[in-house]
Design goal:
This protein is an alpha+beta fold. The protein is built from 4 helices and 14 strands. The chain has helices at 63-75, 85-102, 184-187, 192-198, and strands at residues 32-35, 43-48, 61-62, 103-104, 106-107, 109-114, 119-125, 129-134, 137-141, 146-148, 151-152, 155-156, 167-172, 178-182. It has a 5-stranded antiparallel beta sheet, with helices on one face. Strands 9-8-14 form a 3-stranded antiparallel beta sheet. The protein has a two-stranded parallel ribbon with strand order 3-4. A hairpin with a 2-residue loop joins strand 8 (129-134) and strand 9 (137-141). The protein starts with 31 loop residues before the first strand and ends with a helix. 41% of the residues are buried.
Length: 199
């Protein structure tokens, strides 16, 4: 169903929390979040889930962290304008190119933009998820993309996957909506209804 945006201007509030696997706490884990300070009616945010099974080379930045660093730099000056799905893909592809050149490991990617048009646009490559909760109900959810069980689409050394392979979601937002973006660590362990209950 089409989810229509509210005519009322939105003032997004963005927060994040990363809880590394207990075996990875000492070095912060492989997952990383992108949170930019909301600008007026807009926000740009994302989740990068480092792939634990990917080979890693000592002395290099993790792929997930490199993606976030590149996207944070690119986000400077975006303001409150809405990013199109094409722009989200282009920014993500630029971050992929920079990470391919300097980072190690692999990562899934989910990036999203909320703009002055009150629409949320999301690009997802892999199995991170985005859920829109309105009035105690899940009204929209991103779609995972996997090669096979336990092998999500991902970017990194030797992977043919790129942001252009990702799935997209566009949904109108209204005041009071809650947007949850998380790694598969949340969505593999909680049903959508359980996430909605927590929200």
């Amino acid at each position: 169903p089409k989810i229509v945006a509210s005519p009322t201007p939105l003032r997004p509030k963005v927060g994040s929390y990363v809880l590394p696997h207990p075996d990875k706490v000492s070095w912060g884990g492989e997952d990383c979040v992108l949170t930019t300070a909301p600008a007026g009616e807009g926000a740009f945010f994302g989740v990068m889930d480092g792939v634990s099974g990917a080979d890693k080379e000592g002395g290099k930045s993790l792929y997930s962290r490199s993606l976030v660093a590149s996207l944070s730099s690119a986000a400077a000056g975006l303001g409150s304008r809405s990013l199109t799905l094409k722009e989200l893909t282009s920014l993500s592809d630029g971050a992929r190119a920079a990470s391919d050149a300097s980072a190690t490991g692999a990562s899934t990617l989910l990036v999203a933009s909320i703009g002055a048009d009150r629409k949320l646009r999301c690009l997802s490559l892999g199995d991170c998820g985005l859920l829109v909760v309105r009035g105690g109900e899940a009204v929209a959810r991103s779609r995972d993309i996997l090669h096979y069980f336990d092998c999500p689409y991902q970017m990194g050394f030797g992977s043919p996957d790129t942001p252009k392979d990702g799935t997209t979601l566009t949904v109108g937002l209204t005041e009071g909506d809650v947007v949850v973006a998380a790694s598969d660590g949340v969505f593999d362990n909680l049903e959508v209804g359980e996430v909605v209950e927590v929200v």
